[in-house]
Amino acid sequence: MFRALADVLRQIGGAIATVVTLPFRALARLFGGASSTARGSRA
Question: Which InterPro entries match (predicted)?
């Protein structure tokens, strides 16, 4: 029973981690794309 509870808590923690990191990944991708395009326009 405790093992099942631990698995459920682990899955919830993983879901929360992905939800929390998704916006930061999107922002990093946006800024990364902007910096790469800025580099291209400068050259």
Answer: LPFR_strepto (IPR049849)
